[in-house]
Amino acid sequence: MYTTRPLTALSRRYICAPCRHFASSTPTLAQAASVKKLGVIGAGQMGLGIALTASRMAKVPVTIVDNSQASLDKGLAFADKLLSKDIQKERISQSDADATRSRLKTTTSMDDLGDVDMVIEAVPEIVDLKKLIFSSLAQICPSHAILATNTSSISITLIAAATSKDPKDLSASSRVVSTHFMNPVPIQKGVEIISGLQTSASTLATAIAFCESMEKIPSTSADTPGFLANRILMPYINEAIICLETGVGDEKSIDEIMKNGTNVPMGPLTLADFIGLDTCLSIMEVLHKGLGDSKR
Ligand SMILES: NC(=O)c1ccc[n+]([C@@H]2O[C@H](COP(=O)([O-])OP(=O)(O)OC[C@H]3O[C@@H](n4cnc5c(N)ncnc54)[C@H](O)[C@@H]3O)[C@@H](O)[C@H]2O)c1
């Protein structure tokens, strides 16, 4: 036997140098700025969940931006449904639900984000779209605002670089960070916080503190393809799809053995549908291009 020590006991000397840099850069809470107003871009399944949870737990007003009025209407209808369900189950009082709902404002114009302390972007996983949004946010948001992305896999350093044409100008890129919430946001406790090369310590501290005010449990990871959650999760989903494709098992058997055998709430194929196959494919392409491995 090579070692009998559990993996969780491995010391930090086994961590590669770039990852050690990120792992050691956990800031102090004293560096965190207060977030009194939040912006969220994208009213889809993640953006709506982030906005609702921020309003409910951190009790901040939230401006939700989406370029589709239909998405905004659908998002707010979903928020109403979730709140009604929680009132029925006595998880929230009617007055707290009303207050939560009243803090949510919607708009189709990003220009309405001129007064936020932090913005969290949750538009589809398309590199050029995220770059476009961040270059606009650098112009629209106040000069202190934290610019966070909910990307599942795209480099934070790359997204941050889109905030200025001058690579020496870190005034906006130092405020870019990832707050990678998990789906469904109101339920999942974990948030993966990823810094880009330009991210300042106070930006990281503010992102961590704000996620904690949303009653989430932040974990930090390095800015490498897929970060932690999806670097581990996506090969698992991919292998399940390959098992289906090659006839190792049918859909029911694949999902049932993983659900009942490893105590996860749903099997990998159901999970892939839940995340969205377009999102899964985008993440897998980032992993494949970034890590060059056919299994990813
Ligand atoms: N789905 C998941 O399980 C999951 C989990 C973690 C992270 N993410 C990440 O979160 C992000 C959003 O994913 P989602 O599943 O919520 O997507 P979604 O498709 O449900 O929602 C995206 C929303 O963005 C809006 N949008 C598109 N272009 C826009 C623009 N230019 N300006 C404003 N709004 C625009 C769309 O109308 C839509 O409402 C992606 O980066 C994804 O990788 C997804």
What does this structure look like?
Residues 226-294 form the 3-hydroxyacyl-CoA dehydrogenase C-terminal domain. The record marks 180 as: Important for catalytic activity. With 296 residues, this protein is an alpha/beta fold. It is 46% helix and 12% strand. The protein contains 11 helices and 8 strands. It has helices at 17-23, 45-58, 69-88, 94-102, 127-140, 156-161, 201-213, 229-245, 251-262, 268-275, 277-291; strands at 38-41, 62-65, 104-107, 118-121, 146-149, 176-181, 190-195, 217-221. An 8-stranded mixed β-sheet has the order 3-2-1-4-5-6-7-8, with helices on both faces. Helix 6 links the parallel strand 5 and strand 6. The mean pLDDT is 92. Nicotinamide-adenine-dinucleotide (NAD) is lined by residues 41-47, 65-68, 71, 122-125, 129, 150-152, 180, 183, 275-276, 279.
